């Protein structure tokens, strides 16, 4: 384990103890598998601008379908960010995106004060990913005024950059990304780079 990773892991244990959470092991021998989801997001050490540190923090994050601690700490300022995926040619939602939306819906219902950002362009049949996602969420009871569309991005890097503009304008205090497991780590690195240490970024695995 590199020096950076050891430092991050030690900071995680300290943050866990400060928040009164349990890793399930003695602090001297922590395991990545026992780290509470999102704990690194609220660790000051991981809210930096150095790429090596951002990558190390993200790789050590225990990404799970469980809701990150940030949502319990500040649900009003924390925005749920649902990342888009390619639509069918006629503008319908594919199963991979439906998984993300189901996970986002569970979080939105558990934290009704948290705004929801849907991000994704690449229109099909005149419908953007963000537009299709908003329609899906509204049809399942999420108030339309609670959902913000970012419909210009065409990649994960652009998801991060353009959504950061939205979060900055809305004075968000944190962001929780919702996407599939094989996409989440890369997305969190991109978003942590985009926010430039201004706010913490956590994630929920769509399962």
Helix count?
Answer: 7
CATH architecture of the domain at 63-206: 3-Layer(aba) Sandwich
Mind telling me the C-alpha Rg? 17 Å
**What is the β-strand count?**
5
Q: Which structural category fits the helices and strands?
A: alpha/beta
Main β-sheet description: 5 strands, parallel
Strand arrangement, largest sheet? 3-2-1-4-5
CATH superfamily caption of the domain at 63-206: HUPs
Task: Determine the mean pLDDT.
Answer: 86
Q: What's the SSE pattern?
A: HHHEHEHEHEHE
Q: What's the shape? A: globular
Taking the alpha carbons of the first and last residues, their distance comes to 29 Å
Flag low-confidence runs: 16-34
Q: In what range is the share of β-strand residues?
A: 5-15%
Brief write-up:
This protein is an alpha/beta fold. It is built from seven helices and five strands.
Structure, explained:
The chain has a domain at 63-206: 3-Layer(aba) Sandwich (Rossmann fold), CATH 3.40.50. 42% of the residues lie in helices and 13% in strands. It has helices at 3-18, 51-60, 69-73, 95-110, 129-139, 156-169, 181-195, and strands at 78-83, 116-119, 147-150, 174-180, 201-206. The protein has a 5-stranded parallel beta sheet with strand order 3-2-1-4-5. Helix 1 (3-18) packs across helix 2 (51-60) and helix 2 runs antiparallel to helix 7 (181-195). The longest helix is centred in the N-terminal third of the chain and has 16 residues, at 3-18. The model is unreliable at 16-34 (pLDDT under 50).
